[in-house]
Amino acid sequence: MDSDILALLNSISMNKMFYSLAVFAFVACGGGSSSSDGPNPTPDPTPTPTPTPTVGNANKNDASENAYLARLEMPKARTDSKVITHTTKDYGVTYSVEWDSNIRAQRWTCYDMNKRNAAKNGNTRKSLWPDGDPWNYDPDVATSDQQATYSELSKSYYPGSKDYYEKGHVCPSNDRLYTKDANEQTFYMTNILPMVGKFNGKLWQKMELQVNSWAQKLGDGDTIFICKGGTIDKADQILGKTINNHVVPKYFFMALLFKNASGPVRMLGFWAEHLNEDHSNDALKGYVVSIDDLEQKTGIDFFCNLPDDVEEQLEATKSEDIISAWGL
Length: 328
Fold this sequence. Notes:
Layout (H helix, E strand, L loop, with lengths): L2 H26 L53 E7 L3 E9 L4 E10 L10 H4 L36 E5 L10 H6 L6 E5 H20 L6 E8 L7 E4 L5 E3 L1 E10 L2 E11 L14 E2 L1 H8 L9 H8 L3 H8 L2
Antiparallel strand pairs: 1-2, 2-3, 3-6, 4-5, 6-9, 7-8, 9-10, 10-11
């Protein structure tokens, strides 16, 4: 057969193949119209949806046994820890947490915020719980492994002071006000890390309120993917222990990814030392780091389910460009 004709036939065959793959990807992703990415299964029974296919993603999570691991807010899950996802019937995922049963601590909490689940629907923490916060144990973790709901942190003190620790939310109550049952899940002790009051109610709260403020401005098709936690793995990143021998992180972090209907746009990292000082008047830009830097500090691979080329480009963004892009 003439070589030119053969080349033409090969070209047509390849075009058909690429077209088929494109149609498959479009259908599998729902045409790009969903407000959040990855499986959002209805709770009970265990989720079974097939994760969204990815191209060129060597470090993605293995979601064959847990479909939630394919979601974009998920960092790389460790094989020696347990990932727990809490959900509600009407809104799906409230948040996911990686629990390390050897350390008896959570390593991170991750969740997403979009126009629908950022709505507070007239609720406040006080209106939902007029008789006091509903602190409770996570039903998916042994109670004996968790911090005590009362009396443990209030009898554990920041080094060199008489200031005791508070229950510091990782996924804040304020980010999950859309329903009472979702808000209640934020009070599970697996979503709590010990924080001294001058950090928890000051700088950490300022960071949380900034993230929530961004979420309140989200439009249709916009999503912020969030992963937060404290340092529990490296000896020089641990501040101390509580009276029941639970880890107190020396540093806290946030990793954010903003995505619109066209795709991932920008990332941001916050890194702050757990100090017994009021730094609420500090400009938040002083705590901004690239996701590359945050991964070096924490040992966590954030947003691993993104295609590698997109992940690498956004994670390498310099701090000054991040500050400008996020308006800090």
